[in-house]
Amino acid sequence: MKTSTSSNSSSLRSTLAMLAMVCATGVAALYYGTMGFEVVSTEDGRRLAVSRQPLELPAAAIHQPQAGTLAQMLGEDGRIAIVTFFYSSCTAVCSALGNELQQMQDEISRRGLQHAVRLVSISFDPRDTAPVLAAYARRQHADPALWRMVGVDREDQRKALLDAFGIVVLSAPLGEFQHNAAFHLIDQQGRLARIDDYDDPAQALEDAVQLARTPARGGRP
What we know:
- By secondary structure, the protein is α+β, with helices and mostly antiparallel strands.
- It contains seven helices and ten strands.
- An eight-stranded mixed beta sheet has the order 1-10-9-4-5-6-2-3. The protein has a two-stranded antiparallel sheet with strand order 7-8.
- The longest helix has 32 residues, at 2-33.
- It starts with a helix and ends in an 8-residue tail after the last helix.
- The model is unreliable at 24-40 (pLDDT under 50).
């Protein structure tokens, strides 16, 4: 009887030790996966990483009123750029986001922030040619001094740019797309420095103003 009890105790200790090891491993994985329990999702982790270390953007040729590169356009005047992604025929998220950007454009003008903040909307739809985007900009009452609409010329560069910004685009019926959205803040060096929720444009604008007042971190050599 003593032998059986001893054997059961040993088995219980082994089981508890194994459970403790599994729990410790799980906690460690959760700790590192959430960057020290500071975040609870991959997207939150990405946003935190960007806020700590701004991300250099991949090269991308764009078309706007004139051809060039996204880096050239973002770095041409030293303003903070609030970047969003869209496609001109969208009737869902992009439509709501367009209304928010119109109001944000008005707020930038009202507060006299034209020297510090600008808006840039990047289309991921290859059908959005320069003339299409120009027509869309007119419908949105976009002031080109404050709000630019651009498209990316090459598919591989378009994909690299979407990946860098964390934008996922899925084809939908009738030529539509499903995609996520956010406000992406680009610093004076043309780097992705912050990501804000697309349903809080007021916060995105305040963060852009604050970023404009913050000394540049680790600028380009």
